[in-house]
Amino acid sequence: MADTKPDLSRPYFPRSGVATDGWTSDTEATATCLCGAVQLVFPTEGPGLLNRFVCHCADCRKLTASMFASNFAVADTHLKHVRGRDHLKSWGQSDTPKSGTVMTNYFCDTCGTLMYRAGEVLPGHSVLRIGTVDDFHLHETKLKPQMEVFVENRVGWLKPLDGVKQIVEQGQAIEELPMQDAASKQ
Questions:
Q1: What residue ranges define each of the domains in the chain, with the CATH number in brackets?
Q2: Which of 16, 44, 74, 105 suits 125 as a labelling partner, its CA being 20 to 30 A distant?
């Protein structure tokens, strides 16, 4: 049987959802919801790309219907809505892992894909899901997590990521690693 593993050393856009117009450049890429109604353009390097991280908090578990979320934070000044801003519905709460801080979630109103979160913890920044990024090559390179947060909540059958900073309780963890340094270590 032939090896069917994709070549992730270069841009790779697998069939995923309805939209087929995702793209990547040296400094930007797209993130698209499953139905294609919402598409964002985000920076793939600093200063707009702030951090990449895996989160084990209770909110991320519920929001992803999984045991963790793979995220990246971007400055809102560098986040562009290509299409579907009118398709985004928001829902927020203040009962979050960092109690008392409001987090607002922005979902596609057609397919339900969570496109990003924004909150008081990081004013002027949005947290996107790595899984919405169209170019899977970026998952292995520029968006590879730098840290894991809320590791005290990680399930026992999931091991820590090798070479990744482990942080108990998020606090200001998302802001801890300057993006310019992290991007140069890829």
A1: 28-179 (2.170.150.70)
A2: 16
